[in-house]
Structure formats: structure tokens, C-alpha cells
Amino acid sequence: MTTEIMTIFDKVSDEVITNKEYLTDLDSSIGDGDHGINMARGFSKVKEKIAETTFEGNSQFLKTIAMTLISTVGGASGPLYGTAFLNASKVVSDDNISYDNLIQVGESIIEGIKKRGKAELGEKTMLDTIIPAVNSLKESKSKGINLKPALKNCLKAAEEGMKATIPIIATKGRASYLGERSKGHQDPGATSSYIVIKTIIDEIL
Ligand SMILES: Nc1ncnc2c1ncn2[C@@H]1O[C@H](COP(=O)(O)OP(=O)(O)OP(=O)(O)O)[C@@H](O)[C@H]1O
Ligand SMILES: [Mg+2]
Asked: Whose CA is nearest to atom 8 of ligand 1?
């Protein structure tokens, strides 16, 4: 299982690095234009860690990602992603990650980001992608939908959540300094979260 998660996050790192300019362009519109640079720096280091480390299990692996992102990404998003992965490492199963465990991981990620950033849904942040994604997974589970179609629904919910940040006026982070002028731009953090979620789901499916 650890090899599986390592392969998934190696691909996640590649996708984040590939989207460096796209994320930076988005952040140039409503922030300081460093989100892509920050994220690509962090995930390049994650790739290095994956290549050089032997991990004992999923938990230790996610904790290492958390520490790596905290020490390399910087900005507002570094500590937020770091907290997300640290919380995930505390609840993730070291065996097979079940449907229920995936939901548990998602919930602990949301809890961590909310606590750290004091943001809620609808404030034009990464939470606008992550919360709908996790809620969709929970809803699918309660309706008895199997994991694979549930992951497809989850990805759609994440994409809709990301796009829904466009008309929102930012109230958190650097984009909030723009007030009304933050309207009409997709949030960079919501976009990087979508890239991470999409890559994980694409790899599982
Ligand atoms: N309080 C928050 N809660 C959740 N997400 C947040 C919060 N503040 C910012 N973000 C996310 O972080 C993204 C910006 O990340 P980035 O790495 O560019 O940090 P930054 O705003 O440049 O930080 P700094 O101002 O410290 O340099 C935003 O697009 C948003 O999704
Ligand atoms: Mg920025």
C-alpha cells in the first residue's frame, strides 16, 4: 500500500510542477503571483523524498509530505497544506485505505485547514474545492454508491467548487485585500487543491 501511495504522490508532484505557471498566473490576478512557484518548489522536494526514503506505512509517508511542504512551500498555503497532510497522517490506515477511511481522512483535512486558516466554505479558498469533494464522497457513501462512481462524483464536485470561487469576493488571505476586485478570478489555492484531488482520483480509477 505504501508503494501505491508513493506512486500516486509522485504523479501528484509531477502535475503540480506542470501547472506551475498556470497557478502563478491565477495568483498574479488576485495575489502576489507566487502560488505556482511555492507549490512547485514544495512538490519537487516531495518527489526527492519519495525517491530517497523508505517509508514504514501510509501514515509516516503523509507525515513526511506534511513536514516537507511546511518547510518548503511558504506563503499562506504552505502551512495550510502542511496541516492538511499532517491531519491526514493521523487518521490514515496503514493497510488498505477503505472508502470509510478515505472519508475520515477528508474530514480531518478539512478540520485542520479550517482550524489553521479560520476560513469557512464560500470564502474563495482551497476549502471551496475540498469541502464539496469530501461532502460528495460522504453523500455517495450514504446512498450506497460504490467507490469508483463515488470518486467520479467527488471529482465533479471538486471541479464545481473550484469554479464556484470565480464570482466570490475573497475574505481570507492576500486576495481579500482586493475586495470587490477579487471577483471574476478563480482562486489559485482552490485550483491547486483540484489538481491534487484530480491526480489522486485519476490514479485510483
Ligand atoms: N485562511 C485561509 N484558509 C484557507 N485557505 C487560504 C487561506 N488564506 C489563503 N488561502 C489559500 O492560499 C492561497 C494562496 O497561497 P499562496 O501560497 O500564494 O500564499 P500567499 O497568499 O501568497 O501568502 P503570503 O501572503 O503569506 O505570502 C489562496 O489562493 C487560498 O486558496
Ligand atoms: Mg501568493
From this structure: 173
